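Tokens as discussed.
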């Protein structure tokens, strides 16, 4: 699909470029042809108005540059005189055939293709005059121009083809990234759903068996219910990420006292962490006001505090801080002491379904929470990152203030 999209992009670009090149080079050629023709006609008019100028034959003003000859005709189109230093005018039969062709055309200005001449018919007080000018130089100039235009067109086409290929590669990068993410999302989601579905299927089969007593069957049914709830939470989080990807997760932004929101969440989680054998400390600077969605930001805090509770050392302390920083921004930090997060995990920890399984227990985590938190923070034009040093892990959210 991506290859076809890239080819389509290049084809569209090159079609537009080809049309533009043809139009531009065509205009250049037509303009040059027009100018040469007008210069030639202007010269013929000048000569026809003064067929016998002073000086040497064919020695006219600086604008007269083409070889020419002049024929003065009588009342019956007979040749009265012929003048032209560039030509042998002794063949009267040839001259008479040229006159007949010019007269027969019934045009003041025309071209004799068989002789490669342009003519102009004029009338003087005493006679008619036909001036013929050679077109070889004009045609040679146009031929050279045509060759130059073709060469420039081909080189420009190849150059734009290369540029279009590079631009196509650059343009489809977001599409390629989204496509890879979608494939990875489907793969990871399938993997996450496979295990609970296996558990449900196994317990359901055991429920049908007659080899187990009522207590065992009750345990199997409770296992099915627990895993089903687990799957429901997973599907809800997957749906939220899908909405975020399709830009359906719109902010319902209001002026929000972020300090008050964090304080309320701290009170709520204090008892939750206490039940887990942890204590909670917080240092919240007052009146950190932002424009934000109360529901989504509450979800971010819930994710960060839930992770802190899951991955803290026993009987340790979780700390929440909120400070105003430079450029009218506020910085929230959720800090806990636990298994250190190595640098490779820090790079990937916000990816979907990512868990550092070799370093920390499963604890019912789906690997989606931090990805959801990152999406929410990004919607609020903020940034989120993780730090780990000396056994202390920090998750930091920075948001713009009012």
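Sequence:
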């Amino acid at each position: 699909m991506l290859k076809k999209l890239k080819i389509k992009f290049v084809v569209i670009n090159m079609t537009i470029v080809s049309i533009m090149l043809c139009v531009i080079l065509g205009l250049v050629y037509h303009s040059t042809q027009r100018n040469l023709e007008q210069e030639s006609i202007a010269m013929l008019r000048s000569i026809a108005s003064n067929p016998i100028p002073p000086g040497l034959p064919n020695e006219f003003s600086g604008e007269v540059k083409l070889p020419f000859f002049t024929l003065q005709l009588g009342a019956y189109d007979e040749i009265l005189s012929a003048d032209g230093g560039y030509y042998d005018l002794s063949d009267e039969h040839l001259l008479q055939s040229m006159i007949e062709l010019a007269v027969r055309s019934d045009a003041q200005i025309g071209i004799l293709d068989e002789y490669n001449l342009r003519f102009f018919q004029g009338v003087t007080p005493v006679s008619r005059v036909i001036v013929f000018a050679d077109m070889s130089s004009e045609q040679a100039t146009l031929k050279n121009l045509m060759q130059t235009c073709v060469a420039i067109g081909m080189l420009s086409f190849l150059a734009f083809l290369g540029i279009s290929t590079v631009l196509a590669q650059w343009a489809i990068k977001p599409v390629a990234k989204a496509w890879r993410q979608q494939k990875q999302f489907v793969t990871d989601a399938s993997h996450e759903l496979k295990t609970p579905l296996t558990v449900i299927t196994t317990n359901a089969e055991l429920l049908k068996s007659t080899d187990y007593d009522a207590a065992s069957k009750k345990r199997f049914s409770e296992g099915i219910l627990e895993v089903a709830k687990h799957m429901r939470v997973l599907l809800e989080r997957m749906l939220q990420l899908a909405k975020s990807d399709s830009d359906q997760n719109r902010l319902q932004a209001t002026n929000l006292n972020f300090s008050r929101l964090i304080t309320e969440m701290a009170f709520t989680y204090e008892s939750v962490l206490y039940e887990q054998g942890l204590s909670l400390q917080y240092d919240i600077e007052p009146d950190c006001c932002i424009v934000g969605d109360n529901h989504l930001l509450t979800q971010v805090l819930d994710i960060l505090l839930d992770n802190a509770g899951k991955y803290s050392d026993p009987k340790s302390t979780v700390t929440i801080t909120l400070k105003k920083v430079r450029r009218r921004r506020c910085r929230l930090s959720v800090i806990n002491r636990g298994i250190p997060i190595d640098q490779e995990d820090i790079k990937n920890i916000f990816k979907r379904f990512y868990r550092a399984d070799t370093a920390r227990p499963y604890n019912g985590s789906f690997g989606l929470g931090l990805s959801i938190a990152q999406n929410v923070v990004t919607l609020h034009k903020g940034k989120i990152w993780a730090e780990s040093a000396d056994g202390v892990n920090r998750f930091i959210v920075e948001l713009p203030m009012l």
